[in-house]
Design brief:
With 324 residues, the protein is of the alpha/beta class. The protein folds into 2 domains: 133 residues, ATPase, nucleotide binding domain (Nucleotidyltransferase, domain 5), CATH 3.30.420; 172 residues, Nucleotidyltransferase, domain 5. It is built from 11 helices and 12 strands. A hairpin with a 3-residue loop joins β8 and β9. The chain is globular, with a radius of gyration of 20 Å. The structure holds zinc ion.
């Protein structure tokens, strides 16, 4: 049966959001809560409460299922959480816990994959068959959408663009590696560059945005100063964009995508960073540089939630043998 709605849930380190979503991507109901900090079961309870809230006035038979994006590495076949840095969910059977209390099918996936599915179905990459999504937020995530489908690798652990090495002798990455894209483009890395600049006289514009306290500078302060035209802040983001571009040259050469979508809170606001990455690709990639466009994402904070709902529709339709 063709169902009308799916529930998409986006679980983040800071907040959890759930939405009741129509097939064409219109969100008809939404609920949010701050992510509980007192253990995995509090997180699961919060997710269940939000799902119940957005489903409350809809008949269960109209709902295709529930998709949940988690900031974790997920074995997609086993539907298990293998690795999770920001939340205590590794090894917790989130899917079964939720299905034991809500009579709907549940599918979990990596949050970057969900954001990519969201942009591919309803946003910047609509209608594009070969696309790479990269999300610049506190962490750096991503998704490969190849030949019209999310590519997850053999178990679902693929697409971790943020943990590609860009500098062999680079700084540490929160994952434990060194010189990864996230080491340069995650919020903490940009904030650290901002604090460094704000300690000097020339960093006054950035410092002012943190009420004169160089040590309180965040990545958002750097972006705001850059958007207002401060050259020092612009320099920080353009340099970061250059590093991102170097990494994307490799991706363009490897995959020949038509589109690279840069999302996440930083990616959607720092246009000069994205423009610099595009310049580096245009200068340095092999012939595939002529095919690729680099754009900013369109769905903002909703990308993960909408993509999770899209995933739930896809899983429902493949169970029922329906074609999209
Ligand atoms: Zn890493």
């Amino acid at each position: 049966m063709r169902t009308t709605y799916a529930v998409g849930v986006d679980v983040g380190g800071t907040r959890i959001a759930a939405g009741l979503v129509e097939r064409k991507g219109r969100m008809v109901k939404e609920a949010k809560v701050l992510t509980p900090k007192n253990g995995p079961f509090a997180v699961v309870d919060a997710v269940i409460d939000l799902i119940n809230e957005v489903m409350a006035t809809t008949h269960p038979s109209e709902i295709a299922g529930i998709g949940i994006g988690l900031p974790a590495q997920i074995d997609f076949l086993k539907q298990s959480i293998e690795f999770c840095t920001n939340l205590p969910l590794a090894g917790v059977d989130v899917r079964s816990l939720i299905m034991s209390r809500i009579r709907q099918d549940v599918t979990i996936d990596n949050d970057g994959h969900c954001a990519g599915i969201g942009e591919a179905r309803f946003g910047a990459a609509k209608g594009v068959r070969d696309c790479v999504m990269i999300t610049l937020g506190t962490g750096v995530g991503g998704a490969l959408l190849l030949d019209g489908e999310p590519y997850r690798g053999s178990r679902g652990l693929g697409g971790e663009i943020g943990h590609m090495v860009v500098r062999l002798d680079g700084p540490p990455c929160p994952c434990g590696g060194f010189g990864h894209i996230e080491s340069y483009l995650g919020r903490p890395a940009i904030a650290a560059r901002g604090r460094e600049a704000a300690r000097a006289y020339s960093g006054q514009d950035i410092r002012d945005r943190a009420n004169g306290d160089a040590e309180a500078v965040t990545a958002e302060h750097v972006v705001q100063a850059a958007l207002a035209g401060d050259e020092i802040a612009r320099g920080i983001l353009i340099e970061a964009g250059g590093i991102l571009g170097e990494a994307l040259v490799g991706i363009v050469n490897l995959l020949n995508p038509r589109l690279i979508v840069v999302g996440g809170g930083i990616g959607e606001s720092a246009d000069m960073l994205v423009a610099r990455a595009a310049e580096v690709i245009a200068e340095k990639a092999l012939a595939g540089r002529r095919d690729v466009k680099v754009v900013q994402a369109q769905l903002g904070n909703d990308a993960g939630m909408l993509g999770a709902a899209g995933l739930a529709f896809d899983e429902h339709d493949s169970r029922e043998g329906l074609h999209r």
